[in-house]
Amino acid sequence: xxxxxxxxxxxxxxYNRGVEKRDIFLDDKDYFRFIHDLFEFNDEKPAxxxxxxxxPRKIEKRKLLVEILVFTLMPNHFHLLLRQxxxxxxxxxxxxxxxxxxxxxxxxxxxxxxxxxxxxxxxLVEKDAQFLHIPDYIHLNPLDLKSPEWxxxxxxxxKEAMKFLENYRWSSFRDYIGKKNFPSVTQRKFLMKFFGxxxxxxxxxxxxxxxxxx
Length: 214
Fold this sequence. Notes:
Layout: E1 11-17, H1 28-40, E2 66-74, E3 77-84, H2 89-109, E4 121-125, H3 128-140, H4 143-146, H5 158-167, H6 173-176, H7 189-195, H8 198-213
Antiparallel strand pairs: 1-3, 1-4, 2-3
Helix pairs in contact: 1-2, 3-8
């Protein structure tokens, strides 16, 4: 049984990877599909046929299960920063997301069985230090593909690292720094108010990167 109990209004770092560390995104269409699912399944209404086909639903008022504050997708794993909006919101959202994407992936690649490595992992973000660090940590993750030494505090070219992050599509970072990417997926008002806007958020990310690499 999961040790952590999700509470309405609390913020959680959610992450998971492919079973046996396998890639869960094999082409751009897979990334787009998962991002579509982040939006589509974040609603208390049933997912209908979108388990199989990414069809836009009619424009109507949605009742969010969670606030998706931050996300980053990597070839074999993902990170989400979620705030629960209603009772069992995170559990319901992640059940729909994991099940829906797995059905899509297995059908597309003619495979069967689990795609993800067990139940998703969750960490409650309750301390100010965590809150300041986690959004940047999630957004800096793509550097594993460009400059993996960043986690060992050995990165040398900050300008190139930031340029890479600004051009990485499969993340909410671009939307946070004012470059429209997937703006309808995330609820950014809370973090934007905390950090002071796109320019300040970008500066904060650079400062955090320098701190991690100093």
